[in-house]
Amino acid sequence: MLLNMWQWVVLTGKFWERHGAEVESFRHYLPGDFDNPPQNPAKKINSHYKAQEYLTYIFGYLPGLLYNILPLPYWQHFCKLVCGIRIILQRTISTKELEMAHQLLLEYCVEFEVLYVQRKASRLHFVYQSIHNVIHLAPDTSQSGPLSIMSQWTIEHVIGYLGALIQQPSNLYKNLSEQGLRQAQINALLAMTDLCPEITELPHGAIPLGNSYVLKHPQDPKATMMSTAEV
């Protein structure tokens, strides 16, 4: 009964299942550098969803997927969050962009209580601390720099990479330290001298973007039968 009173509850039943299938189908169109494309949220969101999947799903897919599905006031409110967070996650941010992000996130925070809580004490549990946390993102960026370059993505990747190199489980931490030291020495050599060979040929379908960046075409990990439409 309560769900019928909440106008924002739109992804239920068959709509939720169809939404999940759409999200899963998008993984074939993501660039290769998206190492964790979102899985079907209808099946995996409560158990196997990674942080990177949430970022792509919420701040990449949902604005388009919820258009004309979520009632307009709620959709516009959600888009303020998406726009503000996208700016905050940039590696370079102008003062004007940062001011706009701060304004959008302030409006999102205030309007969340108006739209969802509606000043009702019975709905106070809707307001998680993370809702109010967004109003600090822009000031923290102004003080410390872009927050994306201080995230844990880099160190998590390094830990995973070094862990895969361990060959002596009987002396785990000593081996991990040696692998870290060796990688640091290699990085230092590559930084001091021009030891990296230049890539003269690009993979099939790749597009040069300049500044040593290349957009690669997505590839299937294994051979599959082509559909009639593809043929």
TrEMBL record:
Organism expressing this protein natively: Candolleomyces eurysporus
Annotated protein name in UniProt: Uncharacterized protein
Entry-linked PANTHER family: F5/8 TYPE C DOMAIN-CONTAINING PROTEIN-RELATED, F5_8 TYPE C DOMAIN-CONTAINING PROTEIN
